[in-house]
Design brief:
Blueprint lengths: L7 H37 L6 H32 L7 H21 L10 H26 L1
Helix pairs in contact: 1-2, 1-4, 2-3, 3-4
């Protein structure tokens, strides 16, 4: 089999689209985190809960999890089409795998949050912070791959 399997110009455009897509997903995760912190601040201050934020945060979480996993799978597909070797960019791959694992763990943990004093809220927050941190690293590694 000869690599790349598709036209190099199309492959370049797809790689750029992958980067733009994942940057948008990352920005959505930062917005999602902002909603979560606003909810947490209100809860800790014993202030009225921002129910609009809560509804939005609950609705966006599963969608963002799926979008993050799709972004990883798109990148994996692109590297297989380009080189046939998934370990061509190992740090980008392993950070992406860690992101997917954290996304799934956070989603699973969020399903266990019940009531205002749930012990799962703090671990959920820390996993979210780890996701944001890894997304920043992943974007910078991805920029290095593009150029």
């Amino acid at each position: 089999m000869q690599y790349p399997l598709i036209d190099t110009q199309l492959l370049s455009n797809l790689r750029l689209a992958h980067g733009i897509y994942n940057t948008c997903v990352m920005l959505l995760f930062f917005y999602h985190a902002w909603l979560g912190f606003a909810i947490r601040r209100a809860r800790k201050a014993k202030a009225p809960l921002p129910f609009h934020y809560i509804k939005q945060h609950r609705k966006m979480g599963p969608i963002l999890t799926v979008l993050g996993v799709i972004g990883f799978l798109i990148g994996l597909t692109l590297i297989l089409i380009h080189t046939g070797h998934i370990l061509k960019f190992p740090s980008h791959l392993f950070i992406g795998l860690a992101l997917v694992a954290l996304l799934l763990a956070t989603y699973t943990l969020s399903r266990k949050i019940k009531g205002p004093d749930s012990s799962h809220r703090t671990p959920h927050m820390f996993l979210g912070i780890a996701i944001l941190s890894l997304y920043l690293v992943e974007v910078f590694l991805g920029i290095g791959i593009l150029f």
